[in-house]
């Protein structure tokens, strides 16, 4: 879908590598993530450009086939709480979007099948607010 390399902090890059090693993804997603990580740009967290999906971001995505809009508050795995309406960056949609920027279209295998999403908006998310 989007050919631009993903941009990740070194910590998130290492977390995704570890996630791959644990074999928690479908074969399709595993292959896709391995390919993305090979060409990923690793930067310091403070150097991640605005509009890039990372930890502590609020992401608005559109499911291309249905047009439905979803808003996800991505946080570190230990901070994800359903009652706070937050999800882990290691959730299926979190892993799919990490490192992509606004306007990117991503294809990822979800529990209900292959989906295509467009990242409509990325903004900082402060859990303490």
UniProtKB/TrEMBL annotation:
Gene3D superfamilies: Transcription elongation factor, GreA/GreB, C-terminal domain. It holds the Pfam family GreA_GreB. SUPFAM superfamilies: FKBP-like (SSF54534). It comes from the Bacteria. This is Transcription elongation factor GreA/GreB C-terminal domain-containing protein. One of its GO terms (molecular function) is DNA binding. Residues 49-123 form the Transcription elongation factor GreA/GreB C-terminal domain. One of its GO terms (biological process) is DNA-templated transcription elongation. PANTHER family: REGULATOR OF NUCLEOSIDE DIPHOSPHATE KINASE, TRANSCRIPTION ELONGATION FACTOR GREA. It comes from Pedobacter antarcticus 4BY.
């Amino acid at each position: 879908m989007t050919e631009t390399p993903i941009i990740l902090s070194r910590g998130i890059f290492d977390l995704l590598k570890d996630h791959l090693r644990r074999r928690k993804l479908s074969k399709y997603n595993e292959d896709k993530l391995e390919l993305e990580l090979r060409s990923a740009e690793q930067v310091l967290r403070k150097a991640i450009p605005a509009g890039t999906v990372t930890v502590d971001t609020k992401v608005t995505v559109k499911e291309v086939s249905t047009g439905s809009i979803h808003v996800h508050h991505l946080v570190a795995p230990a901070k994800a709480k359903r009652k706070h309406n937050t999800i882990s960056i290691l959730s299926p949609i979190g892993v799919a979007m990490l490192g992509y920027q606004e306007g990117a279209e991503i294809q990822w295998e979800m529990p209900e099948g292959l989906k295509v999403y467009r990242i409509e908006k990325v903004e900082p998310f402060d859990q303490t607010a």
